[in-house]
Write a structure and sequence with these properties.
The structure holds two protein chains of two kinds. By secondary structure, chain A is mainly alpha-helical. Chain A has two domains: 163 residues, no CATH class; 73 residues. Helix content of chain A is 73%, strand content 4%. Chain A contains eleven helices and four strands, in the order ααααβββααααβααα. In chain A, the strands form two sheets. Chain A has a two-stranded antiparallel ribbon with strand order 1-4. Chain A has a two-stranded antiparallel sheet with strand order 2-3. In chain A, strand 2 and strand 3 form a beta hairpin. In chain A, helix 2 packs across helix 9. Chain A is globular. Chain A starts with a helix and ends in a 14-residue tail after the last helix. By secondary structure, chain B is an all-alpha fold. Chain B has one domain. In chain B, 73% of the residues lie in helices and 1% in strands. In chain B, helix 4 crosses helix 10. The two termini of chain B are 19 Å apart. Classes of the chains: A mainly alpha, B mainly alpha. Chains A and B meet through helix 4, helix 9 and helix 11 of A and helix 6, helix 9, helix 11 and helix 13 of B.
Chain lengths: 293, 327
């Protein structure tokens, strides 16, 4: 029972990171129908920006987090403007290949820079580590703060999407781009805002991940991004609560499977994914639409 | 003279092979260049097979490297673990190598069939992610099989793949793909791509044709994997990760969808470009990525999308007769 609770806490922590990253995938997909393969690399960028903010400028945790979220968000917006926008009217698959190209550049550009390079680097401990025991389950301050912050960010996102004007515009654009445009919504700016939010959430996810597993390198986004993508599809891609649920399920399942066998931990996500998609082809919370002629 | 004209393409193929082989024998092609040419051939087979599923049938599959891995491992198991052919007389080695390639293809095809059966019910991005998942599961399962070395990999595979076999199998798969696309099977697949509901209404068993093209593509990927294993002489499960599947997707789309010529160009050029950029050291992959983005922005159809080289076009027989009569 204690082991179970212990694993559950680790699973929740990993799951909330997956959920943060999956949210970006799902939002971008919901708005422009593009699987943004470069999304996983935003979290790497976020982690590196935070690393430099802390080591070079000596900032604390909160300013570093905010700066990193803003810079990564702006990077996301500019990538959308340069690489994806010209292809918006083209077949979606051209945009997908462009996204792969962008991801290759994002991974290898810092790798080629002499002051970053391919070697993994340690990530600084930004929050004082205080360990304590609750009901025989050992946990620590970093873990709890990470979970709390992830939940906070997700609640904020949910409020933005459901309660504010920009959220209403986002929902309108994702429902029907042309109709939204006719209603006087500036579709381009809505897409930019979506990319900003998605990329900055990924940056936060990257920093939380690096605070927990404190080694970062330029390729860290590939596997993490893939798992978050699976989480997004698992929950029903394009669906925001679905991404959160999918992320949590993925995280918990992975931790439990890893405690049995480390190779199993990698495969379990795919097994769950395949199983769920074969039973519910649109994901857990996705709406299944019948194709009409 | 007429004989030469009628068989122009075949003669050009044989001559280009002889040219490559002579250059090789004379030592003008060093082993590095030769390796790139052979890898390009294998990549062409892979890209064409992916094109059958993604381009012609319109089913978005992104786990193709998994089938290549299955083929590579099964054919290497035949020649290395099962039979230890490296100590055999030479004239036994070649037949067993060919048998092993077919075995690789068959196992990959069988697994493709088993995977296609449930997953091809899904559409679009969901199909994509399920194929990705199956591809990664295949890799993860190979890691767990200790018989073929598990995560350590399988070493000591004899080097049977040479320029001749790569050339032969590339040509064979180009022709097989061309004939498939122009057969009634291929027509059915294209109609599924154009409009699944309409083709179903026309009496096409869409599931059946989707599974046929998926299985056939897996078979080709398995053969390509067998060639790949006997070229590199060492296999490691992680070679066949989803990054490799993405490489083939890039080859396919950069070359141009639904065009066998495009796949040849895409795989050929994009295998060579990173090698020629080697003088840029660390920056080479960055430049490669930038070139890829620029290509998709400037020419979203790829190098040769929707077009074909002359010899891959099918001239309809009745039309040919009519034009001959008119002249």
């Amino acid at each position: 029972m204690e082991t179970f609770l212990q694993l559950l806490i680790y699973g929740l922590q990993l799951g909330s990171i997956y959920a943060l990253i999956a949210l970006g995938y799902t939002m971008v997909y919901g708005i422009i129908g593009l699987i943004n393969f470069a999304h996983g690399d935003f979290l790497m960028v976020g982690a590196f920006v935070a690393l430099f903010a802390v080591t070079l400028f000596g900032l604390g945790f909160v300013p570093a987090l905010l700066i990193s979220m803003i810079i990564t968000g702006l990077l996301g917006v500019s990538i959308e403007r340069i690489a994806y926008k010209p292809l918006r009217k083209r077949p979606r698959l051209s945009a997908l290949i462009t996204a792969i190209g962008v991801s290759i550049v994002l991974e290898n550009f810092p790798r080629a820079l002499p002051f970053i390079g391919p070697a993994p680097r340690p990530f600084p401990q930004m929050i004082p580590m205080v360990k304590f025991n609750v009901l025989g389950v050992s946990t620590n301050s970093v873990q709890l703060i990470m979970i709390a912050l992830s939940v906070l960010l997700m609640v904020m996102l949910q409020i933005i999407v459901t309660k504010t004007q920009i959220g209403r515009k986002m929902r309108a654009v994702s429902l029907d781009k042309d109709a939204a445009s006719l209603m006087g919504i500036n579709v381009n700016s809505v897409i930019s805002v979506t990319f900003f939010i998605g990329a900055s959430l990924a940056a936060a996810g990257g920093i939380f991940y690096a605070s927990t597993y404190p080694m970062i390198d330029v390729y860290m986004g590939i596997v993490l991004g893939l798992k978050a993508f699976i989480a997004a599809v698992l929950g029903g891609i394009g669906n925001i609560p679905g991404a959160m649920v999918g992320g949590i399920i993925m995280g918990i399942a992975e931790i439990f499977a890893t405690s049995i066998n480390s190779d199993l931990g990698y495969g379990i996500g795919f097994v769950i994914l395949i199983f769920i998609l074969l039973v519910r082809p649109a994901g857990i919370m996705g709406k299944f639409t019948i194709e009409k002629v | 003279m007429r004989l030469i004209k009628a068989n122009k393409v075949y003669i050009i193929m044989i001559l280009s092979y002889l040219l490559l082989e002579t250059l090789n024998r004379l030592g003008i092609l060093n082993s590095y260049l030769l390796q790139i040419i052979m890898l390009a051939g294998i990549n062409i087979i892979m890209t064409i097979s992916l094109n059958l599923v993604n381009g012609f049938t319109g089913q978005f599959s992104i786990g193709h490297a998994g089938f290549m891995g299955v083929g590579a491992y099964s054919s290497a198991v035949v020649t290395t673990v099962f039979f230890h052919t490296s100590s055999w007389p030479v004239y036994f080695q070649v037949p067993i190598f060919l048998v092993s390639l077919i075995v690789g293809g068959m196992v990959a095809g069988l697994i493709g069939f088993l995977i296609g059966l449930p997953s091809l019910r899904l559409k679009g991005d969901y199909l994509a992610i399920v194929t990705l998942g199956f591809g990664e599961l295949l890799r993860a399962s190979i890691r767990l099989i200790d018989y073929v070395g598990g995560p350590r990999g399988l070493a000591g595979i004899p080097k049977y793949t040479n320029l001749f076999w790569v050339f032969l199998f590339t040509i064979l798969s180009i022709y097989a793909a061309r004939n498939f696309v122009n057969s009634s099977f291929g027509r059915a697949c294209i109609s599924i791509r154009e409009n699944e509901v309409a083709s179903e209404a026309m009496g096409i068993d869409t599931t059946k044709y989707k599974i046929i093209s998926f299985t056939f593509a897996s078979f080709m990927a398995g053969v390509a994997g067998g060639l790949f294993g006997h070229l590199l002489m060492f296999l490691q499960p992680d070679t066949f990760s989803f990054l490799k599947s993405i490489d083939y997707l890039v080859f396919l789309y950069a070359g141009g969808m639904s065009s066998i010529s495009g796949s040849i160009l895409g795989a050929g050029i994009l295998t060579a470009v990173p090698e020629f950029l080697r003088f840029l050291a660390n920056w080479r992959i960055v430049i490669y990525g930038v070139l890829l983005v620029l290509l998709m922005l400037k020419q979203p159809e790829g190098f040769y999308g929707g077009k074909e080289f002359g010899f891959l076009k099918i001239v309809r027989q009745d039309k040919k007769v009519r034009t001959e009569k008119a002249s």
